[in-house]
Design a protein that fits this description.
alpha+beta, Aminopeptidase, Aminopeptidase i, Domain 2, 2 domains, seven-stranded antiparallel beta sheet, 12 helices, 23 strands, 29% helix, 24% strand, globular, Peptidase_M18, zinc
Length: 467
């Protein structure tokens, strides 16, 4: 019989035993609980630290403070401003030989409160917002929204805020125009149907008792906030309050084969990378999982991938694992590293087939997705992975029977996107984008396949073991 030379990306569901299916659904339950609980960068990092410490990880700051050294098998983490986290499992080989890195981001598109957000108009109190990341603004109206974040008072006291997640909590929302008066609105382009400056959330309508006072509803809101949190209006200036969809992650579909959640991009890859990292104990080369902030707005700032945080932390670990630290050792360590940029991809959607090219699209249930390149219009701004590295990755996935597929982000010139891959590639390390395919990417509620979540953990494990 002639050898079949074609490549078919099969559904992962077809290979699962009953035991495998139980693992798939058990993992998704853990993931749903995480996604229901963690809707901001700070909440993600806080939860990951708790879980890491339960698995034997120690704070790198404490190791440095106690003048300790690191040895193979040691597990440490570094927390950057409560919004970026780096986890290390120290390997047997010198760090100069390189790291095995999983890198994802924990920020997601949302609405942020402005520094002076509170105002009153026609006896209604509202918060002004500024959207964060790339959103379709019209998707954020008439949704139940919650407020998560932190308020820091002048004395340094931190007040954590979560309102809208419990059944007994109030929720908030951005209003929309009734269809009966929408003739002009309906003629607008989608980008202008809802303007960014109009994404104001309604928060109250009861006035204070003093009928002669101005802005009576606004003042009542301030009184309520002072009673609950001990804050005044000026404290909003030093607050980081994020408006996100209210509600829990849910099973999706009659067969419960998918998960609907806010923030799959990119917490689905953050969580699966973290899960894989927790399975690592004795490793040859040092393994790293890097969970960063600010990817959705260009990876800028002190907590974004473009900051020196990661390089500085790697330098500290190199120093603690060797007798004679040098900048050359650090440079060799980074250049000899290999990385999976753990970020989501777009799944083919039969409702919108015109923007995708079927042979180079990702599909639900066919496993983890590798994107050789991202970018837009001639691959601009992308990391273009080397074929030698892709061949290594293929062999790793095959060895561990991981379901995987390869894709582009839509048709040529249709649009595009970017990740943190190109930033790490600046060290001349090998990098490829690799993650889970989604429907509704950047919408308030995104959809993912449970099989792909499971295969992502397996794929990331294979990489950490074999790279």
């Amino acid at each position: 019989m002639e050898k079949d030379l074609t490549k078919n990306y099969e559904l992962a569901w077809d290979k699962y035993s009953e035991e495998d299916l139980k693992k798939v659904f058990d993992l998704s339950e853990k993931y749903k609980n995480f996604m229901s609980k963690c809707k901001t960068e700070r909440e993600c990092v806080k939860e990951f630290i708790v879980l890491a410490e339960e698995n034997g990880y120690k704070n790198l700051e404490e190791i440095i403070k106690n003048n300790e050294k690191l040895k193979p098998g040691d597990k440490v983490y570094a927390n950057n401003m409560d919004k970026t986290l780096a986890l290390f499992v120290v390997g047997e080989e010198p760090m100069e030989k390189g790291l095995k890195i999983l890198g994802a981001h924990v920020d997601s598109p949302r609405l942020d409160l402005k520094q002076n957000p509170l105002y009153e108009d026609t006896d209604l109190a509202l918060f002004e917002t500024h959207y964060y990341g790339g959103i379709k603004k019209y998707q954020w109206v008439t949704l139940p929204l919650s407020i998560h974040g932190v308020i820091v008072k002048k004395d340094g006291t931190k007040v954590n805020v979560v309102v809208g997640e419990e059944e007994s909590d109030p929720v908030f929302g951005v209003s929309d125009l009734l269809i009966h008066l929408s003739a002009d609105q309906m003629d607008k382009k989608a980008a202008k149907v809802v303007e960014g400056e109009n994404l104001n959330i309604l928060i109250g309508s009861i006035p204070i008792e003093d009928k002669d006072a101005k802005d009576r509803v606004r003042k009542n809101i301030l009184r309520l906030l002072n009673d609950k949190y001990g804050i005044d209006e000026e404290d909003f200036v030093s607050a980081e309050l994020e408006v996100v969809p209210a509600g829990k992650a849910r099973d999706y579909g009659f067969d419960r084969s998918m998960v609907m959640a806010y923030g799959h991009d990119d917490r689905i890859c953050s969580y699966t990378s973290f899960e894989a990292m927790m399975k690592m104990d004795k490793v040859d080369k040092t393994c790293v999982t890097l969970l960063v902030d600010k990817e959705e707005i260009g990876s800028v700032g002190a907590t974004g991938m473009q900051s020196k945080f990661f390089e500085n932390v790697v330098a500290e670990v190199v120093n603690l694992t060797s007798d004679n630290y040098s900048d050359l050792k650090l440079r060799r360590c980074l250049t000899n590293s290999k990385m999976l940029s753990s970020d989501v991809s777009a799944a083919f959607d039969p409702n919108y087939p015109s923007v995708m090219e079927k042979k180079n699209s990702a599909y639900f249930g066919k496993g983890i997705v590798f994107n050789k390149y991202t970018g837009a219009k001639g691959k601009a701004g992308s990391n273009d992975a080397n074929p030698e590295y892709i061949a290594e990755i293929r062999a790793m996935m095959e060895k561990h029977n991981v379901s995987w597929q390869t894709a582009e982000l839509g048709k040529v010139d249709q649009g595009g996107g970017g990740t943190i891959a190109y930033i790490l590639a600046q060290y001349a390390m090998e990098v490829i984008d690799c993650g889970v395919a989604l429907h509704n990417m950047h919408a308030p509620w995104e959809i993912a396949s449970k099989a792909d979540i499971y295969e992502a953990v397996r794929g990331y494990c294979a990489f950490l073991l074999e790279a």
